[in-house]
UniProtKB/TrEMBL annotation:
GO (cellular component) term, any one: nucleus
Keyword Nucleotide-binding in annotation: no
Protein name: Zinc finger and BTB domain containing 8A
Originating species: Oryzias melastigma
Renumbered residue ranges of the record's region Disordered: 1-24, 174-284
Main location: nucleus
Keywords, ordered alphabetically: DNA-binding, Metal-binding, Nucleus, Phosphoprotein, Repeat, Transcription, Transcription regulation, Zinc, Zinc-finger
Highest classification ranks of the organism: Eukaryota, Metazoa, Chordata, Craniata, Vertebrata
Pro residues bias spans: 187-198
Amino acid sequence: MDVEADAGASRACRAAGESSHQQPQRWFNTADITVAHQSNLLKQLNQQRRQELFCDCSVLVEGQLFLAHRNILFASSGYFRMLLSQGSDSSLETVNATFDAFSPETFTIILDFIYSGQLDLSSHNVIEVMSAASYLQMNTVINYCKNFIKSSLDISVKEEDSDRGLSLSETCSFASGAGEESAEQPQPRPGSVSPPPALWTRDNSRSQSSFKDPERDVSVSTLKTSPNSPEISAEGDDLQDPQDPLYTLPGSERRRGRAAAKRRPSNSTRPGQQEDQDIQEPRSLKVEKIDELYASLPQIVGVIGHYNKDSSPVMRFKCPFCTHTVKRKADLKRHLRCHTGERPYPCQACNKRFTRLEHLRNHFETIHQARKLVCRKCKCQVTEETGHVVCEGTRRYRMCTACIQEVGCDDIPLESLGESKEEPALLLGVDGEEEGDSKRNWMMNDEDELAEDSGADLIIQQVDDSDEELQ
DNA sequence: CTGGGGACGGGGCCC
DNA sequence: AGGGCCCCGTCCCCA
C-alpha cells in the first residue's frame, strides 16, 4: 500500500472537499481516483522516458546519456531543482547536466526510483547510491540507504540478504520523494521504513542550507560540523543502535560508559568485566561489512567542493553518512570510523579501544605509562628520579617524594621506589632507542604474543582474559 | 553551583 | 596512503 499516495490523496480529497462541502460522501471515491491517477501518471511518464518522448533534459553520467523530464527531476532532486532553477527560463531549451561523481549504473537506479518509486538496493550498490543521492540531494533515497545499511549491519537480523533486492514500492513512492525533497521538513511516512525524526530535521536543514550545488557552491568546502555537536551525535544515534553489537556506544552512551569507567576505582579495574564492556567496542564487529563499505568508497564519494584561485576544481570526498567533506580519502576513511564505530586500536592494558593509533598512544602514555613528569597530588614538577611511579590497577602516575611520604608508603603501591630498571622496556620504554618500536609492538601485538612475554608483568597479565573477545 | 583540569574524540594538515 | 602532530570541542570529575 502506498502510504504517501494515500496521504497525498487525502490532502487532495480535503482540498476537493473544501470546494464541495455538501458532498462528503465523494471524498473516498476521489481518493481512489487520485491514487489510481497518480499511479497511471507515473507509469505514463516512465514510459515516455523509456521511449524518449517529450524528454527535455539530458543527463550525462560518465559519458552515458540519460533522458528525462525536467519537471520530474526538478520535483525529485534538490540538486536538479537548484540546477534547473538557475538555468534558462526557456522551457523549450534542453537542459544538460553532467556527472562524474557516480556511475551510470547508480544513476540508473536513482532514475528508476524517481520514475517508479522502486529503489533497487543491494549491499554492493547501497553506498554508491547513497552518495549519489546525497550529491543529488534526495533525502528520501539517502534515508532508505541508511536504513538499508543499518539493517544489513545488524547482526540481530537474520541473514535475509538473499531477498535484499529491496523493492520499496510499498514504502516509497514518487510522490513522497518529490514532496519530501521540497519540503522544509520532511513528512513522516507512517508505515514506511522509519527515518529518525531528529536526524531528518537537523540533517535536512543543514544539507539544504550548506550543500546547495556541489558543482558551484563554495560553501561546501567550508562545511564544518563539530565532532561532538548535537548534529553528529544525533547522527550517531541514528546510525548506531545501542542494541546493535556492531557498533560502539554512540555519543552520550559512550561517554556515560567512560564516566562509569572513571568513577570506578582503578584498582578494581579488571578488563573483561561488565563495566569495561560499556566503553569498549563489542568484538563481534562485522569487519567484513565495514571493509565492504570501505572497498566501495574510492570512486563514489568525490565531489567538487570549490574552486581554486586558478578556477581549477578542488576534489573533496563526501561522507556518505553525513554532509562532512574532506580533502583526502584517507581522512574520509578515518572520519567514517565515527559512523561505523570501528575501533581498531585496543589498549592491551585496559581493553579500551580507540579509533586511532595516536589516541591509543596518548591514552597509554598518560594512563598506563606515567609519562607526565608531574606529581599527581601536588602537581609539582618531578624528574625521572624524584617522581616515583605509583601503580593503581592498570593506571600509573607519578608522585613526588614529599607526597608519597605524606600519604604514607604503605598506602600506595609503588612501582619501584628504587627505580628498578628491570621494569619491562616493552611496557615502560621511557628511554632508549627501542622505545618506539617496543611500544608499538606492545600496543599492536596479538595478545598471544603478549601472553608469552613474561616480562610484561602487571599490565599485560590483566588482559589475558579477553582473548575470546578479540577473537 | 562553578571553574579548572583530565581524558577523549575528531578535523586539518604536514611528513 | 599512512602516520603523526597540533588544535579544538565536549564531557566528566573534583575541589
